[in-house]
Amino acid sequence: MFLDKVKSLFSLDFLWIVTVFSFFICVQFVFPELKRLFMAGYLQ
Amino acid sequence: MILVDTVQTIFLLVFLVLFWTVVGLSTFVFFQMLRNFFKDRILNLGQRKPEMTGADPQEFKGSGQIFDFSSLLALGMTAWFCIASLLLAVGEFKFWTFAAVFVVGLVGSKPQLKNYYVDFTQGLKDFSRELKARTKWEKTLIGFIVLFVLLSLTSFVAPLESDGAAYYLPIAKLWADSGLFQMLRGYDDFSAVGAFAEIQMATIYLLGGEWLVRGFSALIPLLISIELFKFSKKLGLSFSAFLIQVLALYTSMCVMLIMYSGKIDLFSAWLGLLAIYCLFFDSKIYRAGLFLAAACIAKLSLLLPMFFVALSALVYRVRFSKESKNQWRSFFILGLKLAAPFLFVLVWQLVKNHVLFDNALAPFIGNKLAEEKYWFAPETISRIKMLYPLVWFFGDYWGQLGSFSILVLMFLPFAWLGKNRTHSTETGRVVPYWIGMFLIGMLMWFLVRPSFVAPRYIMGFFLIAFPLMGLGYDWFFQNQANHRLKAGITKAIIVIYSLHLVAVYLKAPLSPVRAFYSWRAPLSKCKFDGPDCVAMEILNEKAEPGSRVLQLMYESIWLRPDLIQTLRGSYELDGIETLSTDEKWKKIISRGFGFILLKASTHNAWVEKVGLREPPPWIEIQELFNFQGVAVWKIGIKNGPDTPQIPPEVELKLGRNGWDVLELK
Predict the structure, then answer these.
(1) Distance CA B531, CA B526 (A)
(2) Backbone phi, then psi, for B136, in 5-degree steps?
(3) pLDDT digits (tens, 9 = 90+) for B162-182
(4) B210-235 and B239-250 helices cross at what angle (nearest 10)?
(5) Is the pTM of this model over 0.80?
(6) Closest by alpha carbon to B312, among B288, B293, B342?
(7) What is the rounded distance in angstroms from the CA atom of residue B573 to the CA atom of residue B550?
């Protein structure tokens, strides 16, 4: 029953939403290197 | 005192809305009359004397709704931009000319004013009925939106800083005081940028709205929300799909960071979205031309993506027109109908730059601003290119000023899947055009300005992604209607992300906590601002009219308008670093500077450049203020045997429109 529920979560649309949010969490809070990738100062 | 300021600000806001509305209505009446006049002429072929009939009262009725409020306000602002540009070009942007335009607007809009009022109140009732949340989820979304709107209103007491305090507000203050187009000294080349919002801000200054200019931009997301509602209605979206778009707007850091401090980029965002709406859906394409021009003047960078929007709208209109037999002919005629009002509004931007630079085509030709093509070194630009399009949602590059909400990225890809929803015939056929123009516009921006990843530059264009995202949102939730777990997790993600943004707002300059403490501070003019303001207030007190301030900082908004008029020009002290200390100071004195204003955090290099550390013995320096790296000095010449003779290079002359700095050689 539980496994069926988990399996049913695997659809492309839902995975996309979860991926975007997870990526946001990683950039903002988990991996500072990832955050630095999205940062740069003027003419650097 | 605060209560008086608040009441005064609200009263002024209501009055300005009335002003723009009557100017908009009379412009509408004027266009109607013009149309009827030519219609009579053409149809009757001179058999009957053409009549200058009034506007059709049915035009508003029924169609109605409050949402004409947003278009009408934009129409009023656009008409006022043209009139005010003319007044500023001839140096007559004064209170009495403003009052005259208001009276003429009031008289001209009289035939429509009553209809509009009836329509407005009816629309307001309909709107409030529609706004009623039906589900818990809709109530949650409304709760967040109300919270964000309240937080955004703290922009009225947020500190003035960066672009707003450096350029947009000082030039508006300058124009309001002098009544003439003048460049802001120190931003000589930059003064060539479009002046749509600056003129509206100058109007607020003209009426004494010192507080209103601070937070005016925070009201614009409400107008953008009205436009999003119009788009949602056209696409047949659900109420929660509309709400998610508004939530995405308020959770976009790039919107939040330009809502305060007198920044004006949101004008172009609102007008751009309105122009796109009119391009695709308004029966009168001339209005699209007017708003398109207004949006592009408010942010000249919009010209590039908006060209493709206009092109795709023309193709769409011709393709689905019921009347057209010859499609090329229709395309050409529609193009002319769009281009004529566009050029009519655009010409006032050319007039402004002709007055300022004797170069109507600035900043595109013959201006240093056009040379600014890259913000970063090549390796950083390569990195930005690699990160496209994620950089628009996660980027925090220099000058980017925030990115778009990830809610857009979450649901936007589903727009294509949602385009064939059955209950709206318009949805299916318009969406491919929007997706196409969105992709082409972004691609062009990527090719032409890859390092300018600042959302504010193309927000008026990018916002078309929001209704598309609403479409994707509806598709997703309808697709997952039977899967409560997926829907629940997605809603939880939206709530968590919104809560995170609430925390960000609380830490930002828009923080209500900060506002509260500033409010409780002892009453002073600078209670919401920093030492920059205090330093300039001291200058305002000590400097005689006709004094010159050598500003070694970006901001100048707190200075008296006459002192702003005579600031250091961008190229005035070019090459001073190569001179000896004596010669440096001779140069400063000969240019008529009596005060120096320094902000060490941004202009510390200038301390060496102008020889501030070791002035010659014949120079007298008196420190008037020095706190947290901001300093004010009064400078003069000591009378003594070693004092050199310094012939003046400039003369300050008081004219009809304030002070002029005249070169003597």
Answers:
(1) 8
(2) -65, -35
(3) 899 999 999 999 999 999 999
(4) 150
(5) yes
(6) B288
(7) 10
How far is the C-alpha of B411 from the C-alpha of B242, rounded, in Å? 13
Are residues B489 and A41, on separate chains, in Cβ contact within 8 Å? no
Query: What is the rounded distance in angstroms from the CA atom of residue B393 to the CA atom of residue B413?
Result: 14
Mean pLDDT, range B415-419, rounded to an integer: 87
pLDDT tens, position by position, B10-69: 999 999 999 999 999 999 888 888 878 877 666 554 444 434 333 443 443 434 444 478
The alpha carbon dihedral of B535, B540, B544, B550 has a sign of positive
Chain B positions in Cβ-Cβ contact with residue A7 (cut-off 8 Å): none
Chain B residue with Cα closest to A5: B485
pLDDT at B185 over 70: yes
Q: In the predicted model, is pLDDT for residue B517 greater than 50? A: yes
Tell me how far apart the alpha carbons of residues B80 and B88 are, in angstroms, rounded to a whole number. Answer: 12
Mean pLDDT rounded to a whole number for chain A: 86
Smallest Cβ distance to A39: which of B397, B476, B483? B397
Q: What is the least distance, in Å, from the CA of A25 to any CA of chain B?
A: 10
Is the pLDDT score of B370 beyond 80?
no
Long-range pairs of B426-430 with CB within 8 A, sequence gap ≥ 24: B426/B234, B426/B235, B426/B236, B427/B235, B427/B236, B427/B471, B429/B316, B429/B320, B430/B234, B430/B235, B430/B280, B430/B316
Nearest by CB to B413, which of A16, A39, A44? A16
The values of phi and psi at residue B650, to 5°, are -130, 160
Q: What is the pLDDT of residue B113?
A: 81
Coil, helix or strand for B653? Answer: strand
Using a CB-CB cut-off of 8 Å, the residues of chain B touching A9 are 485-486, 489
pLDDT of the residue at B428 = 75
Check: CB of residue B532 under 8 Å from CB of residue B500.
no
Q: Do B395 and A11 touch (CB under 8 A)?
A: no
Strand partners, B620: B636
Three-state secondary-structure class, residue B377: coil
Q: What is the pLDDT of residue B423?
A: 57
Size of interface A-B (CB pairs under 8 A): 71
Residue A43 has pLDDT above 70, yes or no: no
Gap between the Cα atoms of B654 and B501, Å rounded: 51
Shortest distance, CA B5 to any CA of chain A (angstroms): 39
Angle between helices B196-206 and B68-89 (to 10 degrees): 80
Select the more confidently predicted residue: B6 or B264: B264
Residues in chain B: 665
pLDDT for position B44: 59
State the complex-level ipTM. Answer: 0.91
Continuous H helices in B183-238: 196-206, 210-235
DSSP percent split of chain B into helix, strand, coil, nearest 5: 65, 5, 30
Question: In the prediction, which pLDDT does B392 show?
Answer: 95
d(C-alpha B243, C-alpha B495), whole Å: 13
Chain A CB contacts of B486 below 8 Å: 8-9, 11, 14
Question: Which strand (E) or helix (H) includes residue B652?
Answer: strand B650-655
**Residue in chain A nearest B385 by alpha carbon:** A38
Confidence of residue A15 (pLDDT cuts 50, 70, 90): very high
Tell me what the mean pLDDT of segment B219-245 comes to: 93
For testing contact with chain A, the best of B162, B383, B388, B409 (most A CBs within 10 A) = B409
- Looking from the CA of B275 toward its CB, the CA atoms found within 13 Å total 35
